[in-house]
């Protein structure tokens, strides 16, 4: 019997067939939670669930398209039936594959099908999962709902217009959860994630991003999963309605910081 900080808790993690979601599944399981590994890729979800079971945790893989209310309704019913309760919902799923990223461009060159997909999966999906999970949490008078957001939802950039808009809207959802259900024991928070690359990216882009983080390196899945585990657990019981920034300082500095750092280096100044 686990004595971890999530012992006896049940967590649904969407988009956990790979990437950061799979790491969140491993870390929350290591703290004692039973995990519903939810992904549109059913084989990937089952494979992560199987690896958790092999490591001694309780886990269920479920193929779900979070943009479909029918799928989400059935998924929540299955988790409730299997585990009897739901304590944590981590709305992590997002459509981020290479084809989507090539079509979700600047506003003048935006493929509206890609825009619709970004909003449907990233935003509608999180709303649907919250809509169907919170009633279960209310029966228990306790629950933590977490939303995965991004710096792109806070600051303008060159591309990914649909993605950025969906992530900006997601920052409103923890406030709604907190305001609407907080008095009945439900907390809502978002994590604004810096770059913890899960897809191949050009070296030049990685260099720009690394220069703009205030940490020696870009993020790792474990660093993000540790923050999710904090928000999932009672360690954060007085934290609700907020967006916790875990981005290596990416959004914390002046726009001129990178150029200033280079200038200081040229001048032989240290401490930058
Ligand atoms: N990795 C980063 O650097 C980074 C930075 C900022 C924010 N984020 C956010 O973190 C989350 C995870 O990102 P990632 O890098 O691991 O992405 P990823 O592409 O590796 O994983 C996303 C997962 O979501 C699943 N998915 C896609 N559409 C779905 C649908 N309709 N229904 C259910 N599942 C679906 C995919 O199959 C995949 O397993 C996302 O919300 C992303 O926006 C990531």
TrEMBL record:
Belongs to the short-chain dehydrogenases/reductases (SDR) family. PANTHER family: DEHYDROGENASES, SHORT CHAIN, ESTRADIOL 17-BETA-DEHYDROGENASE 8-RELATED. The keyword Oxidoreductase applies. InterPro entries: NAD(P)-bd_dom_sf, Sc_DH/Rdtase_CS, SDR_fam. The keyword Cytoplasm does not apply. This is SDR family oxidoreductase. Gene3D superfamilies: NAD(P)-binding Rossmann-like Domain. Transmembrane segments: none annotated. It comes from the Bacteria. It comes from Metapseudomonas boanensis. Keywords: Oxidoreductase.
């Amino acid at each position: 019997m686990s004595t971890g900080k999530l012992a006896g808790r049940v967590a649904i993690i969407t988009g956990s067939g790979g990437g950061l979601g799979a790491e969140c599944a491993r870390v929350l399981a290591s703290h004692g939670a039973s995990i519903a590994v939810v992904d549109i890729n059913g084989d990937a979800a089952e494979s992560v669930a199987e690896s958790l079971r092999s490591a001694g945790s309780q886990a269920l893989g479920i193929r779900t398209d979070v943009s479909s209310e029918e799928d989400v309704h059935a998924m929540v019913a299955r988790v409730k039936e299997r585990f009897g309760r739901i304590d944590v919902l981590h709305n992590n799923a997002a459509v981020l594959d290479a084809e989507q990223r090539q079509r979700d461009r600047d506003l003048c060159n935006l493929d509206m099908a890609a825009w619709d997909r970004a909003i449907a999966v990233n935003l509608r999906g999180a709303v649907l999962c919250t809509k169907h999970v919170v009633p279960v949490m209310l029966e228990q008078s306790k629950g933590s709902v977490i939303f995965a957001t991004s710096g792109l939802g806070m600051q303008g950039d060159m591309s990914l217009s649909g993605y950025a808009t969906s992530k900006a809207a997601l920052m409103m959802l923890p406030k709604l959860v907190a305001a609407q259900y907080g008095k009945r024991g439900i907390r809502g928070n978002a994590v604004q994630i810096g770059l913890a690359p899960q897809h191949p990216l050009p070296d030049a882009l990685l260099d720009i991003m690394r220069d703009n983080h205030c940490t020696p390196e870009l993020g790792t899945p474990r660093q993000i999963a540790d923050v999710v585990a904090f928000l999932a657990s009672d360690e954060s019981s007085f934290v609700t309605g907020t967006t916790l920034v875990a981005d290596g300082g990416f959004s914390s500095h002046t726009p001129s910081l990178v150029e200033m750092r280079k200038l200081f280096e040229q001048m032989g100044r240290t401490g930058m």
